[in-house]
TrEMBL record:
Source organism, top-level taxon: Bacteria
InterPro entries from the UniProt entry: DUF4760 (IPR031876)
Transmembrane segments: 6-28
Protein name: DUF4760 domain-containing protein
Pfam families: DUF4760
Keywords: Membrane, Transmembrane, Transmembrane helix
Length: 178
């Protein structure tokens, strides 16, 4: 073997060793990167979960705050309107509420508008569904059921098929999930 061949062979072996070392270093770097990505993903999952829990807690707190602060208004609205079909005033109230601009019409419209606004907030996840279900669910379902004829008549009278639709959607969900 000539000196040239021996030198070439030595350079080739050294080149092979350097290439293997670089390849090993690259594999080690990729494993380290994968571990860092996994750690970042885990950290992000934990942060997302914590943020979701905090969001739920705040939404529930704000829902309870809304229910508590509007309780006097709810009581005033509910005192003006029969809340059970067995109430002796119910039939006469419903008949007179079907007359636009009557006193009972306005009382019922105020109550239904309150429930419509509340229902829209629940349906859009601004307010917490479970809290509303537990605190007001029965009243929402009962009011929707009792005054459905009035809602239908108002939809026809005003030519607004989506009138009180949010209330209807919430009441339907409350019935289906109970």
């Amino acid at each position: 073997m000539s000196t040239y061949e021996a030198g070439t062979l030595t350079v080739s072996v050294i080149s092979l060793i350097v290439s293997a070392s670089v390849m090993g270093l690259l594999i080690w770097q990729l494993r380290l990167l994968r571990r860092q990505v996994d750690d970042a993903r885990t950290s992000l999952d934990i942060s997302t979960s914590q943020a979701a829990s905090e969001n739920l807690r705040v939404r529930q707190s704000e829902t309870l705050k809304f229910v508590a602060t509007t309780l006097p208004e709810q009581n005033n609205l509910l005192n003006d309107v029969p809340q059970h079909e067995s109430d002796v005033r119910y039939t006469g109230f419903l008949e007179s509420a079907l007359v636009p601009d009557s006193d009972n019409f306005h009382k019922l419209r105020r109550l239904m508008s309150y429930y419509e606004m509340l229902s829209a907030a629940v349906n859009m996840d601004v307010f917490d569904y479970a809290i509303i279900d537990r605190t007001m669910g029965a009243r929402v379902k009962r009011t929707h059921r009792m005054y459905k004829p009035w809602v239908k008549a108002e939809r026809i009278r005003l030519n607004r098929v989506r009138l009180y639709e949010e209330l209807e959607m919430l009441a339907t969900r409350l019935v289906e999930e109970s």
